[in-house]
Amino acid sequence: MNMVFCRGCGKEIHETAVTCPHCDATQTTSAATSTTSTIADDTGNAFDWYILALQKYAVFTGRSRRKEYWFFFLFTILISMGLAIVDRITGTASFGSNTGLLGGLYSLATFIPSLAVMARRLHDTGRSAWWMLIAFIPVIGWIILIVFLASESHRAENEYGACPKMM
Questions:
Q1: How far apart are CA 163 and CA 64, in angstroms?
Q2: Rounded to two decimals, what is the model's pTM?
Q3: In terms of C-beta density within 10 A (0-12 exposed, 13-18 middle, 19 or more buried), how is residue 155 classed?
Q4: Which has more confidence, 164 or 152?
Q5: How far apart are CA 167 and CA 42, in angstroms?
Q6: C-alpha dist (Å) from residue 88 to 65, 83, 95, 128, 135
Q7: Phi and psi at residue 13, in whole multiples of 5°?
Q8: What does the alpha-carbon distance between residue 104 and residue 122 come to, in Å, rounded to a whole number?
Q9: Contact in structure between 65 and 38 (CB atoms under 8 Å)
Q10: What is the pLDDT of residue 115?
Q11: DSSP letter, residue 17
Q12: Percent of the chain at pLDDT above 90?
């Protein structure tokens, strides 16, 4: 019994489902057979991509589009900045470590989804998730990793699944 993600709401559904039991969105053949389906087209707003990455909380298999990764990254940064402000206002910020209670909890909650969406993004470029370890090389490692994450998707199916842009 394989599960896929709905093309409408992004929730997990059975691969043979014709319509989503959550949102009643009609599933096409390509969506019903893919385990890496994302938002079907570009009609969703930016926050939908963030939510989609959170819905695939610990899914390290498959592929993610640049939009999914970079919107997740953007909203994570924005929410972290907002929580840092709230932590300073409420006095829950630790000035020695620059981490507050709310910001720390949010960072902890998004740690695994951040790794998972980065792994799927690297898969989309045809690279193994082990390339994340290059970030441990000071400066150069981060530059190389950012280039990999910003690279164009491989349009053809690769060992990690079908291209999410083509679905």
A1: 9
A2: 0.71
A3: exposed
A4: 152
A5: 11
A6: 35, 9, 9, 39, 30
A7: -135, 165
A8: 26
A9: yes
A10: 95
A11: -
A12: 42
Which three-class secondary structure state does DSSP give residue 126?
Answer: coil
Task: Assess contact for 66 and 34: CB atoms under 8 A.
Answer: no
The per-residue pLDDT for 30 is 43
Once rounded to an integer, what is the mean pLDDT over residues 154-161?
82
- The conformational region for residue 149 under phi > 0 = left, psi -120 to 50 = alpha, else beta, is alpha
Name 94's bridge partners. 99
Hey, what are 32's tokens?
């019903």
* pLDDT at site 163: 79
How much is the pLDDT for 22? 79
- 10 near 38, Cβ under 8 Å? yes
Buried b (16+ CB within 10 A) or exposed e, 67-84: bbbbbbbebbeeebeebb
Q: Which residue has the tokens 């999410």?
A: 164
Q: Which of 92, 90, 37 is nearest to 63 (CA)?
A: 37
Q: From residue 125, how far is each of 32, 111, 154 by CA, in Å?
A: 23, 22, 6
Q: Indicate left, alpha or beta for 134 from its phi (over 0: left) and psi (-120 to 50: alpha).
A: alpha
- pLDDT tens-digit readout, 6-60: 766 667 777 777 887 877 777 764 433 343 444 545 556 888 889 888 998 888 9
